[in-house]
Amino acid sequence: MSLLRFDNVSKTWPGVAAGLSDVSFRVEDGEMLFVTGHSGAGKSTLLRLVHLSERPSRGTVLFEERNLAKVRGSKVPLHRRQVGVVFQDHRLLTDRTVFDNVALPLLIAGTPAAEVGKRVRHVLDQVGLGDRGKALPLQLSTGEQQRVGIARAIVAQPKLLVADEPTGNLDPQLAAEIMQLFASLPALGTTVMIASHDLALVKRMRRRVLVLDHGRLVDDIAPEDLAA
Ligand SMILES: Nc1ncnc2c1ncn2[C@@H]1O[C@H](COP(=O)(O)OP(=O)(O)OP(=O)(O)O)[C@@H](O)[C@H]1O
């Protein structure tokens, strides 16, 4: 059983040539893969279909063989507990501490308070921010804020993490560190899918790469086939 499956998925808007056009692929449990392509190629659209902030115009998206078209209304939050999301711009609550920001998905899920504390401390340690729980987001550097966003996305142990240009604002050293952090997640049970237009970075990671061009999936490159 594939964790995620796109079957002939298209997403169109009136007046837009193609958001996505007849895209099919599968992602297996425990993979880490990249989605790449030029600006406007459809990377964000593809990820948004996975966490249900968009719906396909045609075709089917399946998560653990469940057709996401059937996941509607009150079932959407349940689906989103299984799919963590990292955005380029963090979207942290600036008036809440780092700890509170990271705790949020667990509180929404109704996790008992004692468990929340334990999990948040663990995940902050994992992203190297064990001593910054009481800080406010704006007291942190950009890279640290990005790591808080990642901690928040993985704290509820999602089956899949989707990250949209997660290193776009970061210097190369920090970007590499964040990528290593993502690379450690499959071993902990989280499959990772990252949209990035940074080809050099993507190649260095030596993972599977889906290549989009004008909404079409034009290549699906295995790690061993990536040119050095
Ligand atoms: N809500 C929308 N309404 C209309 N058109 C949209 C919408 N969302 C995306 N598009 C269009 O779909 C195409 C793909 O956009 P998308 O944001 O997925 O590309 P991208 O590869 O993520 O680009 P970038 O690297 O610049 O973020 C673009 O032509 C875009 O203008």
UniProtKB/TrEMBL annotation:
Transmembrane segments: none annotated. One of its GO terms (molecular function) is ATP hydrolysis activity. Keywords: ATP-binding, Cell cycle, Cell division, Cell membrane, Membrane, Nucleotide-binding. Residues 4-228 form the ABC transporter domain. The keyword Cell cycle applies. It is found in: Cell inner membrane; Cell membrane. GO terms for biological process: cell division. Gene3D superfamilies: P-loop containing nucleotide triphosphate hydrolases. One of its GO terms (cellular component) is plasma membrane. It is a peripheral membrane protein. Its main location: membrane. It holds the Pfam family ABC_tran. Belongs to the ABC transporter superfamily. This is Cell division ATP-binding protein FtsE. It comes from Arenimonas composti TR7-09 = DSM 18010. The lineage of its organism: Bacteria, Pseudomonadati, Pseudomonadota, Gammaproteobacteria, Lysobacterales.
